[in-house]
């Protein structure tokens, strides 16, 4: 059985999605370690760091393609604009809004609002892919359960103060960009090599972030070996996870895959315990995990026609 046949399996979709969100979850604590190791403080420097991370991730996917296919990854001329749009929306805009927004609101609000990517994606999928991704009552209940679960992870620090409203709005724009990226990926991936789509969108989107970060006065001095290792790790995580994510969205309904992004803050909390020694064992986190798991199950239950 070849890899394409395997990834089309339902169990492979679930396993692959969990692997992706588990890898993305490492970004929360590892980025903190990277900021500390490289003395990154300004928003411009953070965007520059993000851009270097994604551009390098794109290069790693190019190398992967060269090794696996024994030839460079290429896309057709007619696919340049769609792939460029994907890179702009999913990588540049999503992380530009995220990094700017988090500086104007709390990390907790950012985590909760980012979790709305799943809900937006599920609803948008019902609009753009009516024949294969219908919106059902179970999906709606599942999305709500998952969002409540994300709130439980962060409830102790959640704030509705007016000082955070602008930041919350910008982070919400990041969530819409992430959901838009999922829809675009599904739209353009048919008949294309997921590795080529991933490589070009990551590199192009990352390059734009580098330019924006530099214009905003960002500067990073890689005088720390630890900082270099962290950058390489984050790039490797991005290359593997986005490549797998693109392949999953190519062969499966958007709602089946994107609902798993609700697990990102859960894995982020888990990795914070492993890497940073933060205390995560409390009833709120347990309730959160149960609710998010229930939401994922509800969204993926096959409804009778």
Describe the structure.
The chain has 305 residues and is an all-alpha fold. The chain is globular. 76% of the residues lie in helices and 0% in strands. The longest helix is centred in the N-terminal third of the chain and has 27 residues. It has one domain.
Short structural description:
This protein has 14 helices and no strands.
Portion of residues in helices?
A: over 70%
Number of helices: 14
What distance lies between the first and last C-alpha atoms, to the nearest angstrom? 31 Å
Give me the secondary-structure category.
mainly alpha
Order of helices and strands: HHHHHHHHHHHHHH
Features:
305 residues, mainly alpha
What's the SSE blueprint?
Blueprint: H1 3-7, H2 10-25, H3 27-38, H4 43-69, H5 80-102, H6 107-114, H7 116-128, H8 137-154, H9 165-188, H10 194-215, H11 225-251, H12 254-258, H13 264-276, H14 283-300
Helix pairs in contact: 2-11, 2-13, 3-11, 3-13, 4-5, 4-10, 4-11, 5-9, 5-10, 6-8, 6-9, 7-8, 7-9, 8-14, 10-11
